[in-house]
Design a protein that fits this description.
The chain has 164 residues and is mainly α. Helix content is 59%, strand content 4%.
């Protein structure tokens, strides 16, 4: 506020001007409180979260086929996805979430290392429904090798970018 404006306000006060008019000039415009308060963003539902929730649901309903940690994973029967999709609606899972849940379960070191030639495969109830073949066991080993190679490459890449 400049000197001239202050002088004008002083004369208005001395003349007994309307105090509300003077006060409104001195203060800024009122703030709309509803606009100023920002709500935190809601966390987005990612497909990874949905797949993890699907795995939890499968573990709850089929503990013999989807054991909880620390128990090792066991080879699932070939075509188990069809069985899971047939029961997905009764479990409260969408087809997409059920598919992603089974995909998440059958991916990774714990599952690939359980694929040993001659081990029994199980269905949703835990009943034996096949045997792991040599080709399937070799596939599990190759998947694990690929994962280890990729991890080593990432570690080497991160070390090269940082000073020692």
């Amino acid at each position: 506020m400049g000197f001239e404006q202050l002088a004008a306000l002083k004369t208005q006060l001395n003349q007994g001007g309307n105090r509300k008019e003077v006060a409104s000039r001195l203060t800024s415009s009122p703030v709309d409180a509803t606009r100023e308060i920002k709500q935190p963003p809601k966390p987005s539902r990612t497909s990874a979260d949905a797949a993890a929730r699907a795995v939890t649901t499968l573990q709850r309903h089929f503990p013999h086929a989807f054991p909880h940690r620390p128990a090792p994973k066991i080879p699932l029967k070939v075509g188990i996805l069809k069985d899971v999709l047939a029961r997905a609606a009764s479990l409260g899972l969408s087809e997409r979430d059920a598919r992603n849940g089974v995909k998440l379960w059958c991916r990774g070191q714990r599952y690939w290392t359980c694929l040993v030639e001659g081990d029994m495969r199980v269905d949703l109830t835990g009943a034996i429904s096949g045997v792991v073949t040599a080709v399937e066991a070799e596939y599990g080993k190759s998947q694990e090798k690929t994962r280890l190679t990729r991890t080593r490459e990432q570690i080497a890449k991160s070390r090269n970018g940082q000073p020692r």
